[in-house]
């Protein structure tokens, strides 16, 4: 490993200095997805957009408090609570905002329904959930919430025989589009006129009714509330490198993946709706048991319908992530290789990626971030949202073309051949 300005990064050329299993499971250099699909599911996915799916629904937790507290429909928290209360697990490893400081987040082992609910909502900054592994109690069984690269790493560890990883009996996780560099929080605060030494006392990423708003309260009593659609403006300025490199949107190695049900039908209804994808018969059984007990209100949906809700992000990761990684390599920078090449990939799609990547490159410079902080959010938020929708419409033909029939050419990742 090498320590850089942005944290600890794998040393690709000296990977063998790591224990072999740690190297195998390191998502920074890429995990061999074809190999992992075969080991974990016994086959390659038939649908490359969302991976292996046993059953898929849209809906929400039945308990209004769980639904309101959750990021979308509260299904993840409801399932964690049910796994605990039905004796299937001894603890739920989740992520909790506010540890060790209100503006930071960390893994947390929840052992009661109220502790699980205290961890609800999405945390949009990176959290090293797998750091919990040495802290698991021998003999105990856990559920764990992971973002895609962590789920894949955990599965690689489990299949490699790591006993602590094998204590995790259920993996749940969000569909994951983009996460933000932690510096985004201070930037938004500065943009709202908060001085540097005014500390954060509370931070919620998805407060209020779905889709919610970011709420920051400071020591001086200042309250910042920014609608989700407006604080999305932070994405081009503070998107993490991992988000740009990951090719897994639907969290393909969980037992249960949950995303926002972005569709006019559900958005019009408000209150919170999720897309809920079970990847294993065992998890499907848990979900059906919960439906019978009245703990979840779900309706069956097909993969096609659900994928249409996230077509933009699926393309951003599967084809965009691939192009961005290959361009990094072409410019002598390191990038993960997961052994999958998307097809089709035509010129219009490549041109769209050139525009997207140029925007990210410019926006992530200190100057662009400074300019962003000096434009009032009430102007920048709606303006960004408008531009985003215009761009989404204009790039839709190129981004959606061929997505329905997306295929992946499977090969051995380069790092395995070295
Ligand atoms: C970084 C990030 C990006 C996302 N991008 C998208 C997107 O583009 N499109 C989309 O449809 N959905 C996205 N989601 C998922 C969405 O925000 C909700 O998390 C999801 O719909 C689950 O909602 P819920 O109400 O079931 O979750 P809840 O009931 O609120 O439970 C969420 C659980 O996940 C845990 N958790 C939260 N953040 C993290 C994290 N960073 N790492 C590990 N565990 C965590 C919580 O501790 C909690 O246990 C993203 C989530 C994250 C964290």
TrEMBL record:
Residues 57-133 form the Coenzyme F420 hydrogenase/dehydrogenase beta subunit N-terminal domain. InterPro entries: Co_F420_Hydgase/DH_bsu_N, FRHB/FDHB/HCAR-like, FrhB_FdhB_C. Residues 140-301 form the Coenzyme F420 hydrogenase/dehydrogenase beta subunit C-terminal domain. This is Coenzyme F420-reducing hydrogenase subunit beta. It comes from Haloferula helveola.
């Amino acid at each position: 490993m090498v320590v850089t300005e942005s944290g600890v990064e794998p040393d690709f050329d000296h990977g063998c200095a790591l224990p072999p299993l740690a190297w195998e499971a390191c998502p920074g250099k890429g995990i061999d997805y074809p190999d992992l699909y075969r080991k974990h599911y016994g086959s390659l996915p038939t649908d490359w957009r969302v991976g292996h799916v046993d059953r898929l629904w849209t809906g929400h937790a039945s308990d209004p408090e769980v639904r309101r507290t959750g990021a979308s429909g509260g299904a993840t928290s409801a399932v964690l609570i049910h796994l605990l209360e039905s004796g299937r697990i001894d603890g739920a490893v989740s992520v909790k905002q506010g540890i060790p400081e209100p503006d930071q987040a960390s893994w947390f082992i929840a052992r009661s329904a109220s502790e699980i609910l205290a961890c609800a909502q999405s945390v949009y900054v990176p959290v090293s959930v797998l750091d919990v592994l040495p802290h698991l109690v021998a003999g105990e069984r856990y559920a764990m919430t992971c973002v895609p690269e962590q789920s894949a790493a955990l599965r690689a560890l489990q299949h490699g025989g790591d006993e602590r990883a094998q204590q995790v009996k259920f993996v749940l996780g969000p569909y994951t589009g983009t996460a933000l560099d932690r510096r985004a929080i201070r930037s938004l605060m500065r943009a709202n006129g908060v001085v540097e030494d005014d500390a954060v006392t509370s931070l919620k990423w998805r407060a209020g009714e779905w889709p919610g708003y970011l709420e920051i309260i400071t020591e001086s009593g200042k309250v910042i509330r920014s609608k989700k659609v407006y604080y999305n403006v932070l994405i081009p300025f503070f998107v993490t490198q991992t988000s740009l490199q990951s090719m897994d949107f639907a969290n393909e190695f969980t037992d249960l993946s949950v995303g926002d049900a972005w569709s006019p039908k559900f958005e019009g209804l408000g209150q919170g709706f999720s897309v809920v994808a079970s990847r294993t018969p065992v998890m499907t059984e848990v979900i059906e048991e919960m439906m019978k007990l009245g703990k979840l209100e779900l309706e069956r949906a097909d993969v096609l319908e659900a994928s249409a809700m996230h077509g933009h992000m699926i393309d951003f990761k599967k084809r965009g992530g691939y192009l961005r990684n290959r361009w990094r390599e072409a410019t002598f920078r390191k990038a993960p290789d997961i052994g999958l090449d998307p097809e089709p990939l035509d010129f219009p799609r490549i041109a769209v990626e050139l525009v997207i990547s140029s925007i990210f490159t410019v926006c992530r410079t200190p100057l662009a971030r400074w300019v962003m902080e000096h434009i009032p959010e009430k102007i920048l938020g709606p303006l960004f949202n408008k531009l985003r929708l215009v761009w989404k419409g204009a790039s839709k033909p190129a981004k959606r073309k061929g997505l329905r029939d997306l295929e992946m050419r499977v090969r051995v990742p380069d790092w395995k051949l070295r």
